[in-house]
From TrEMBL:
<dbReference type="InterPro" id="IPR051313">
    <property type="entry name" value="Bact_iron-sidero_bind"/>
</dbReference>
<feature type="domain" description="Fe/B12 periplasmic-binding">
    <location>
        <begin position="61"/>
        <end position="333"/>
    </location>
</feature>
<dbReference type="InterPro" id="IPR002491">
    <property type="entry name" value="ABC_transptr_periplasmic_BD"/>
</dbReference>
<dbReference type="GO" id="GO:0030288">
    <property type="term" value="C:outer membrane-bounded periplasmic space"/>
</dbReference>
<keyword id="KW-0732">Signal</keyword>
<protein>
    <submittedName>
        <fullName>Iron siderophore-binding protein</fullName>
    </submittedName>
</protein>
<comment type="similarity">
    <text>Belongs to the bacterial solute-binding protein 8 family.</text>
</comment>
<dbReference type="GO" id="GO:1901678">
    <property type="term" value="P:iron coordination entity transport"/>
</dbReference>
<dbReference type="Pfam" id="PF01497">
    <property type="entry name" value="Peripla_BP_2"/>
</dbReference>
<dbReference type="InterPro" id="IPR006311">
    <property type="entry name" value="TAT_signal"/>
</dbReference>
<keyword id="KW-0813">Transport</keyword>
Length: 334
């Protein structure tokens, strides 16, 4: 994430949970109208962090409150009624790699990284399914959403914002009744990963650390469950011991702790136009300049569309990242 996204990441931990009486009344009406006496066929049970949710058969009005869930919904052929606008200046929060699949649909923006989830807007959209697998939904938020429509939260067993793209695709495939399509999508991307690994045997077993600028003179590193880190470990790289201390997807480190970055490859994520600011901060950090990995020229700053495709880490974005990024890091490792 870039600096703006780090701020968004901080705001993720404090989603707004207060809503007015109008929302509660609307949610009650939605819940009541959705209970048709049990004659309608039941969809699958989908497990997640807060239990299990029975989703409707063939949902037609899907609202994504996850940061990147709408990519996978579109890839599976789902119909979006609402989306979460993570970052970037794109209509409906949908990035270029997914816009063709959006077609003429005009989903409502139901939240942003700066304003968080707008529960009243979610209710007004009238969803029949709400999903937030790449999210940090709290129990309270899940309860409020669940009062509006069946809600699938982030999967149990992973850090918030840490679901692997394979698991996300399979979970949403189950929720949409598209298990076979989900399997096809996962297989296609996994084959691309396998092809890249085969073409770059030097990646295997090399240690990698992925960092970002958090603020003036402040840096952070991503944990093993962050999608950007998984992008590299899925290519054969391994996590250094220092990352074992990270329990979430991102941890701030002091300037002195930069000395722990004794790895084979140091990647800086600086999407969103923060590359120049990152370079400025690194240039005036003496400890960083003394690192072996820096002296050996085994560092790279990712800051373009390929970096964003890596950050999103969905079945729609990863093919582009896998085409663009490996050729840039091969010369640093070989």
């Amino acid at each position: 994430m870039n600096l703006g996204q780090q701020r968004a990441g901080l705001s993720r931990r404090g989603f707004l949970v207060g809503t007015g009486g109008a929302l509660l009344a609307f949610a009650a009406a939605c819940s009541s109208s959705g209970d048709s006496g049990g004659d309608e066929p039941s969809g699958p049970l989908v497990a997640h962090k807060y239990g299990e949710t029975q989703v409707p058969v063939d949902p037609q009005r899907i609202v994504s409150v996850g940061y990147n869930d709408h990519d996978t919904i579109l890839a599976l052929g789902g119909t979006l009624a609402g989306t979460f606008d993570w970052y970037g200046d794109y209509p409906y929060g949908v990035w270029p790699w997914a816009q063709d699949l959006l077609g003429d649909a005009q989903p409502e923006i139901v939240g942003t990284a700066s304003t968080n989830i707008d529960f009243e807007k979610v209710a007004t959209v009238g969803p029949d399914l709400i999903v937030g697998t790449y999210s940090g939904l709290t129990q309270a938020q899940y309860d409020k959403l669940g009062a509006i429509a069946p809600t699938v939260a982030q999967p149990l067993g992973f850090a918030d914002y840490g679901v692997p793209w394979q698991d996300q695709t399979r979970v949403l495939g189950t929720a949409l009744g598209k298990e076979d399509k989900a399997a096809e999508l996962v297989s296609a991307v996994e084959k691309q990963y396998a092809d890249v690994r085969a073409a770059n045997p030097s990646f295997a077993g090399k240690t990698v650390l992925v960092g970002a600028l958090k603020g003036p003179g402040q840096f952070g590193v991503y944990g093993p469950e962050d999608p950007k880190v998984r992008f590299f470990t899925d290519l054969g790289f391994v996590n250094p011991p220092v990352t074992q201390q990270i329990t979430g997807n991102f941890a701030e480190i002091s300037t002195e702790q930069l000395s722990l970055a004794n790895v084979d490859l140091l990647v800086w994520y600086a999407g969103g136009g923060y590359g120049d600011k990152l370079r400025e901060e690194l240039a005036k950090t003496p400890i960083y300049q003394e690192l072996d990995v820096v002296r050996a020229g085994r560092t790279i700053i990712l800051e373009d569309a390929a970096a964003e495709a890596m950050a999103w880490s969905t079945v729609l974005s990863l093919p582009y990242a896998l085409t663009e990024i490996p050729p840039r890091i091969t010369p640093l490792i070989d």
